[in-house]
């Protein structure tokens, strides 16, 4: 058989050499000149744009997202410049647009049809760059008015356009084509040794132009502005292609090196190797393994080879064709090495299993107090996000190794988002804040997603790397210390896990992506090309795929083992289905119906978790499926988010309609145990109760729910019912202080003001004290776990009675804005203890009848309630 060689791998090196007759200078753009991207996303009306001239920039949105081909919506440039006073690719200056949510009208593109958009600009005046500052490059990405990114390179890096000096010689390659990154890499496709490579290059003025391969010229023109040539590559290995130009006074050279591969070697994975990195030889060697079926070839590149692909880093393929691996030697134990995989000569991705990433765009805005000494990005050597490996890492010594998790029925979970909870949004500050949460008596903290997500300021439901904690919140050790300290205080830590979907920054998405359709490719081992349910965001995981199942289980085991987390709250768990339910009304109905395939998936994952962590580990699903489906899964020990926000808020606002919050009881779901239903009045996803109380509250005469003090007292009344209902409970951060900022302020997922100043307000402090006492009662008295409930919650005057062999508790309250008479069968006459206040109430018969003022509530118990 004829020996076929793999596709061409390219590594870009821009070199300058000396000539005695003429000075050799860098191209006047300073950065490698490029106009047309490999995907055709970006073109200009001139080959050599300058800082002072006006030119037209065209963005082809359809090249990045086929769905945008016929778009009529507005598209904006989010753009800045790199100048001679910038420090690198990440140092944008003179940025147009204050933020993603505030587009600059001057950066609005004009639609010209077929998904193309244009803008004309003269860089110095457009960006407002002072005359003394040299513009080297324009940097940009394209987005819709609401901030959705629709234009970037394949590796999710930003687009760069070089700016040239007027009236000076400039040269550049047009073929091979370039990705418009900070230092672009050419994309060449040579199938075999001996194949011809076509070259096209241009100059900004007439010059003598020469092309050479490995020092041997193959094309030359004089007094020309363009040169074309073809050359055969006759041997595997590294080669240098060089372009030179001279106008008689100045000579410029541009060059790049490329590597032609030999045959891929087939070899079994070494013993002990697994996806990601395994260190051997005392940390001086590493085996890197990438799961990537259907790919032609892969190289490992990184600090260990100065990002230069070479045959020692050409990865072997396992006999099944699914995995690629290579052993990297001569490493320094304990040293951090950044690395990537270069797949099929075009795609640079970080390791999906990396425990740390280096991001050229967002790392610069991470405060050093959160993450000190972030590795510098190797600007000019590669592009895109990098993975980091380090042997002989310090091993955290856990102080509280025998932490006993609270029983599920005792759980009171405090959901928090670090960004909007603390000004210094890091684990160390959160650890210092645990006194506050301990005194509130919560016994679990649920952290909104903390693994690497896109950007820094985010809710975190746009995940990209599943084994790496996002550096914006702190270091690996700081997270471990925080969890350890929680355990020392009796507090469990639950991690919000997002495995319904991933986003475009994910290397797993990038590995199998169809640029034409803007969707995952049909041969992706992990993702559906089209989401199988109507509420998906990002790219939808296929949880029936063996590759996805394996990946998910490795993610779960990693966090259980490495960080000792006590539970997972699984985001959008109902999306773990391959039953396509469409988006119509009928589809949504089908989407909510019982799904045996989804049930099987969750039973499998739950069984895996139990096998690895059987000690009361919390598996909490954001499911909201049919009661029968949730009941079946609850019998396997899984727990379910239970949203009673709307009914509680109707009650607190003073409206009877839809104010029955009896769905907080597990029995109304058909559950046999109350421990499986995690009810909440507020979560990150719901409008804040106090915002609606103050905005829409009812009134009667002088009684006004919109009055702050009145609204806060009604929150106390709601909490009295909420925490008395048997079963685990969750509260959203600052709910105990009556946080009143709308979820929609600064956009639903945008940053919200942090109001620790609420602690200085007496009415809010009173609400917090009530929350603390109610939680204390709940977790220390069996009646709130085992009490048999009777209740009437349908009217304005509501009551709940719990009875067990030891005690009886009655909670009653008037949620109307007018007086209401309430009559309740207490079941026993005699002395009853009242809370708050500790007074006694004597009941001559079994029936309690009382006229309640609006907002008045009481808790009575037959026997004392114990506090911790």
TrEMBL record:
<dbReference type="InterPro" id="IPR014756">
    <property type="entry name" value="Ig_E-set"/>
</dbReference>
<dbReference type="GO" id="GO:0005975">
    <property type="term" value="P:carbohydrate metabolic process"/>
</dbReference>
<dbReference type="Pfam" id="PF16328">
    <property type="entry name" value="DUF4961"/>
</dbReference>
<comment type="similarity">
    <text>Belongs to the glycosyl hydrolase 13 family.</text>
</comment>
<dbReference type="InterPro" id="IPR032522">
    <property type="entry name" value="DUF4961"/>
</dbReference>
<keyword id="KW-0732">Signal</keyword>
<dbReference type="Pfam" id="PF00128">
    <property type="entry name" value="Alpha-amylase"/>
</dbReference>
<dbReference type="InterPro" id="IPR017853">
    <property type="entry name" value="GH"/>
</dbReference>
<protein>
    <submittedName>
        <fullName>1,4-alpha-glucan branching enzyme</fullName>
    </submittedName>
</protein>
<dbReference type="InterPro" id="IPR013783">
    <property type="entry name" value="Ig-like_fold"/>
</dbReference>
<feature type="domain" description="Glycosyl hydrolase family 13 catalytic">
    <location>
        <begin position="415"/>
        <end position="763"/>
    </location>
</feature>
<feature type="signal peptide">
    <location>
        <begin position="1"/>
        <end position="17"/>
    </location>
</feature>
<dbReference type="InterPro" id="IPR006047">
    <property type="entry name" value="GH13_cat_dom"/>
</dbReference>
